[in-house]
């Protein structure tokens, strides 16, 4: 039955069916109008909308959630994807615009800066859409990122990123009661490794070569493999970590099963868990952050996560403190763009000591 209008109380109602590409759809709802002509206009708009919908091709009907499914099935990371998926669920990509995605970034992270909007919304949304568009499943969508020049962009309320020196790492290690975290913090400081890359390393893999003093990171953030040199000190740390892991494994194998009644000290925490074969023993970064926070509080150190004591400090240690050239530092730290390294990772030294070091009194030479 075609759509018709009828009056019910003060308002005119729609009733009947419309044909969609999925079949007949039953309609019975109020138009919200008290005027019959206005109600008929809503009826016509509803019928025309249904006709346009029937005429759409598969590419025009392709939904954002279908693009997300294709993206994840291709083995891509789901990081930052879920909030965007929830925001655009049920939305056709053919109806999406760059302005819609930019508005979504602001809506999802209202207190963030333009850098966060780009990293956590613009870049992943573009990646999801582009993968399906390249496969011919949906149209391309031009999405422009935010920049510092945008009026809506704002300064971050977070403390500026900083680098630490070896004294921070040593103080952390001195107060650490977890050899995994002690080794991990030293490793990131000396290699500039991202936490995600460090945690993926398998201890029995050829990617961890203590003879050649080298580790290989597989499928890094940019999709490529990368290599890092490790110091003799780090080799010793890894050897000690292996001894510790073996001791923990023996303890685990000799434990009393939980199902039996037992007396004495109960296993808890790490002692109750079978050690895994990851080099640093962690599966997820959440437990790493929790452990680092606890040790920082114990050592009365500022909590800086892993990126600042790691990647930021590696760059500063190489370029600023030891005068290693930018090209070499970029290669050793696996930066594809040396300019990004200089702009975001190398931090200046502060304090009057810098000026004294360069221009301070060094003894005058006698004239003549």
TrEMBL record:
Protein name as it appears in the record: Phage integrase family protein
Which controlled-vocabulary keywords does the entry list? DNA recombination
Q: Which Gene3D superfamilies match?
A: Intergrase catalytic core (1.10.443.10)
Q: Which organism is it from?
A: Pseudaminobacter salicylatoxidans
Q: Which GO terms describe its biological process?
A: DNA integration; DNA recombination
Keyword Transferase belongs to the record: no
* Example of a GO MF term: DNA binding
Keyword Manganese tagged: no
Q: Which residues form the Tyr recombinase domain?
A: 159-359
């Amino acid at each position: 039955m075609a759509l018709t209008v009828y009056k019910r109380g003060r308002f005119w109602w729609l009733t009947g069916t419309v044909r969609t590409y999925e079949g007949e759809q039953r309609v019975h709802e109020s138009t919200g109008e008290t005027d019959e002509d206005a109600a008929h206009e809503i009826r016509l708009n509803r019928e025309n909308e249904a006709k346009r919908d029937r005429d759409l091709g598969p590419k025009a009907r392709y939904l954002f959630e279908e693009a997300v499914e294709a993206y994840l099935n291709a083995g891509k990371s789901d990081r930052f994807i879920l909030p965007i998926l929830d925001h655009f669920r049920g939305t056709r990509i053919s109806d999406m615009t760059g302005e819609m995605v930019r508005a979504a970034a602001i809506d999802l992270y209202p207190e963030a800066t333009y850098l966060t909007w780009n990293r956590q919304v613009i870049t992943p949304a573009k990646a999801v859409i582009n993968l399906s568009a390249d496969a011919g499943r949906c149209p391309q969508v031009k999405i422009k990122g935010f920049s510092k020049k945008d009026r809506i962009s704002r300064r971050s309320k977070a403390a500026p990123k900083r680098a630490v020196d070896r004294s921070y790492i040593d103080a952390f290690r001195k107060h650490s009661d977890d050899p995994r975290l002690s080794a991990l913090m030293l490793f990131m400081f000396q290699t500039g490794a991202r936490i995600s890359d460090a945690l993926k390393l398998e201890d029995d893999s050829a990617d961890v070569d203590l003879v050649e003093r080298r580790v290989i990171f597989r499928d890094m953030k940019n999709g490529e493999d990368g290599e890092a040199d490790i110091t003799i000190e780090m080799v010793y740390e890894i050897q000690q970590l292996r001894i510790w892991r073996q001791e923990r494994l023996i303890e685990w194998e000799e434990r009393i099963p939980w199902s039996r009644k037992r007396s004495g000290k109960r296993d808890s925490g790490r002692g109750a868990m079978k050690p895994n074969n990851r080099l640093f023993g962690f599966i997820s970064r959440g437990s790493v952050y929790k452990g680092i926070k606890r040790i920082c509080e114990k050592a009365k150190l500022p909590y800086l996560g892993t990126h600042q004591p790691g990647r930021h400090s590696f760059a500063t240690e190489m370029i600023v403190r030891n005068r290693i050239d930018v090209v070499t530092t970029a290669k050793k730290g696996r930066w594809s763009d040396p300019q990004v390294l200089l702009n975001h990772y190398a931090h200046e030294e502060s304090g009057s000591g810098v000026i004294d070091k360069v221009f301070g009194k060094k003894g005058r030479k006698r004239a003549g």
